[in-house]
Amino acid sequence: MVMRTLAASLLSIGVIVTSMQVSAANEPIQPIKPVKPENAELVELGKMLFFDPRLSKSGFISCNSCHNLSMGGTDNIKTSIGHKWQQGPINAPTVLNASMNLAQFWDGRAKDLKEQAGGPIANPGEMASTHDMAVKVIKSIPQYQAQFDKAFGSKEVDIDRVTTAIAAFEETLVTPDSRFDKWLEGDKDALTKEELEGYKLFKSSGCTKCHNGPVVGGNSFEKMGVYKPYKTDNPAVGRMEVTGKEDDRFVFKVPTLRNVELTYPYFHDGGAASLEEAVEIMGKLQVNREFNKEEIANIVAFLKTLTGKQPDFKLPILPPSNNSTPKPQPFE
Amino acid sequence: MVMRTLAASLLSIGVIVTSMQVSAANEPIQPIKPVKPENAELVELGKMLFFDPRLSKSGFISCNSCHNLSMGGTDNIKTSIGHKWQQGPINAPTVLNASMNLAQFWDGRAKDLKEQAGGPIANPGEMASTHDMAVKVIKSIPQYQAQFDKAFGSKEVDIDRVTTAIAAFEETLVTPDSRFDKWLEGDKDALTKEELEGYKLFKSSGCTKCHNGPVVGGNSFEKMGVYKPYKTDNPAVGRMEVTGKEDDRFVFKVPTLRNVELTYPYFHDGGAASLEEAVEIMGKLQVNREFNKEEIANIVAFLKTLTGKQPDFKLPILPPSNNSTPKPQPFE
């Protein structure tokens, strides 16, 4: 009776509405927050560099080639294509929301986006340039120098500044406003019954033990194949490559599930072509659970609600090379 | 005396100002006019397809890979990179203002942009897909079907519609508002003394015999090497490939000089790395003229005034593949 009266009072002053809302604070997943870059000129410079294939030896491969911002920040192929069509060793992780990962690359060998950005440029199997050559190319272009001046306060170009700018741009690549985030923020109509069922099962089965926080992953290293071994021809050993410890064999950074509908194929080897396949395998290997068809469909429906606002900017126009710019060497 | 009075009268009523302005009608080059697309949904669809690497076998090469709209609609390498890093036979021509060419490809083998668009998709050395496969991929994606519905009035996807849409997008890729066009339209301060000297020499030497009209070329086929033969290792024979006539050996479509500052390297074989080199060679071979250093510098200065407004749109976001979409085959 007292309760009913209290409820009625709360209702009458509108408080009940708030208390009935989903509280993101009580959920293992938190909403993605939009970012406001501090230095817009630095972001603009980073965007140009991200799209500039002259950072590669061939003049053909840019950051955007494998982290294609038209396609969820990935290349949507099992393992990437590098200089002279070399087959990459691992699936290109999405650059979307990557700033919130605890470290970069599947094995976490780069501590942040800036350190990551320098990797592919100088990797002979990827962009196949060198930091010296990349800097020489960019430095030769007066319009780039002017943009460095705006971004850093002086025209000097070095690899530290190049990677700082790319990282600053990448930090803007967050994807707020997914339907799931709307639900987290109190819009209980944002999800269908199936999607909500899927989310509940995702939590109750233990998936959120690793896939949690704002990026639904990205904040821990975990073994691939906890209850059963993961079968793959891919030779990557994961975290062990970094730590040298046998215990870290097949330990990888937990990938973000944000925009997972767009970032197929899945796992470090790109071994799962569909979300259904990925959920089934993860169930068996990681949480010791054989999901039935309906359960898989519900979890997949939930996962598709994690697609947020995609990159929203104009295609950057790159300043031309000139007679002093080193030439690309696509066939050497 | 009569003349002076007339002049004074004209001046007094402001007519003399008009008569002193440059009249584009009297120049061999005309300004580029902006275009207003009739069907915005068709253009939007074409833009998505232009950026979609799923039109290629590998899932890695899109129209934009070799006609990069961040880089003057070209790839800025001598000859393009195709499927499995095959070396292309010829320099990728710019897609900017290409709608105004009398025909497409260097040898004019496609009559328009629509016919052109189908070529690279199915060329084993370029995107290496087939029209059937490209259609199958696009048709499998409901969001694409919805865009076809908006653009064409029904969801049906076929290669005719795919290439119609790409061509409609490409028709919007015109580059008005260059400094030269401003000068043509009466702003006599738009060019420096050197640029104007360069233009005068460009005309008086006979360059405008072929490089004329709104796109400064693109409206005739001409022999490469009129006064002296052009030396190249490139086996392309040009127009002869289409007509079978020996007279058409080394006859190529005259390339546009619009945005030529951005479309290096030059000639059908990409053989000239710099504008200076290109002008020097063209002088000797095509108009029988040995330009001195200052003359070359002036002509190059003029050519750089032909850079117009570059593509200005948001990076398209592509709809994801799904379980029924054929998979890319990058390494097959």
Structural notes for this entry:
Chains A, B: Its main location: periplasm. Chains A, B: Keywords: Electron transport, Heme, Iron, Metal-binding, Oxidoreductase, Periplasm, Peroxidase, Signal, Transport. Two copies of one chain form a homodimer. Chain A has 332 residues and is mainly alpha-helical. The first copy, chain A, folds into two domains: 40-171, Orthogonal Bundle (Cytochrome Bc1 Complex, Chain D, domain 2); 179-306, Cytochrome c-like domain (Cytochrome Bc1 Complex, Chain D, domain 2). In chain A, 36% of the residues lie in helices and 2% in strands. Chain A is built from 13 helices and two strands; from the N terminus they run ααααααααααβαβαα. The first copy, chain A, has helices spanning 2-12, 15-20, 40-50, 63-66, 113-122, 131-139, 142-152, 159-171, 179-184, 193-204, 240-243, 275-286, 293-303; strands at residues 221-223, 251-253. In chain A, strands 1-2 form a two-stranded antiparallel ribbon. In chain A, α10 packs across α13 (293-303). The longest helix of chain A is centred in the middle third of the chain and has 13 residues, at 159-171. Chain A is globular, with a radius of gyration of 23 Å. Residues 1-20 of chain A have low confidence and may be disordered.
Short description:
Two copies of one chain form a homodimer. With 332 residues, chain A is an all-alpha fold.
Keyphrases for this structure?
13 helices; two-stranded antiparallel ribbon; mainly alpha; Cytochrome Bc1 Complex, Chain D, domain 2; homodimer; disordered N terminus; 2 domains; 332 residues
